User: What shape does this take?
Amino acid sequence: MRILIVNDDGIQGLGLHKLAEVLSREHSVTVVAPHTQKSGYSHSLSFHKTISYAPYNLGLPVTSYSLTGTPCDCVKFAIDVLMKDALPDIILCGINDDYNLGTDVVYSATVNAALEGTILGFPSFAVSIGREHSDDFTYPAEFLRKNLEKLLSFKRSNTVCYSINFPSNDPKEIKGVRFATLGLRKFSDRYELRENADGSGYLLLGEPVPMDNSPSSDVELIKEGYITVTPVRIQDTDSALYEELKGETLCV
Assistant: This one.
């Protein structure tokens, strides 16, 4: 199987390295990743500016490149240029070193890179694990290896990717796998002034704020110790509001 691996933590990301290491034992793996950390870049693309790429040695039997663009650029550039003569069977984004739960998907470049993959017509999956468990990515990488064919069999469309989150890297702490809805996740965001070697600046910090969520949401199921698998759709018109509003008139 031909696999494209992308991330938003950069070409040196440990989660990306472990995923490529595990999957390259049985599959043909191509890695295309940003040359630096690009978390929080959502679905941004490098319009009106040039990007460049260079081969990168991961020390693994894989083909890998570092790109000066965003995670979504990595997906598009891989499909249009680097893999155009041997397109991937599946796109995997991650393994991200923090959760992408609920409303995190709005900001997450990991999830949005997977959405870009699905827009382009490829089965695409975003993979994340809690920051407190990001010292070892072996379990989530092995989970993907064992379940790769099953994941490929999931129903898909050009508007839906799947986001997978792991509550732990210790299989003894995991209760099972649940398909989940997106929950709500908010943070007590604040900007703190910090002194840096290159001058002072403001750093965005925040802690999760408790929210009321459905028991079937990814936010709640992760707390209970389940791996969550959530179908994430890029187009989501509020049907109820549409029906309510479509009879309204506005001045022209």
In short: The longest helix spans residues 138-152. The CA atoms of residues 5 and 31 lie 5 Å apart. The chain has a mean pLDDT of 94. The radius of gyration is 19 Å.
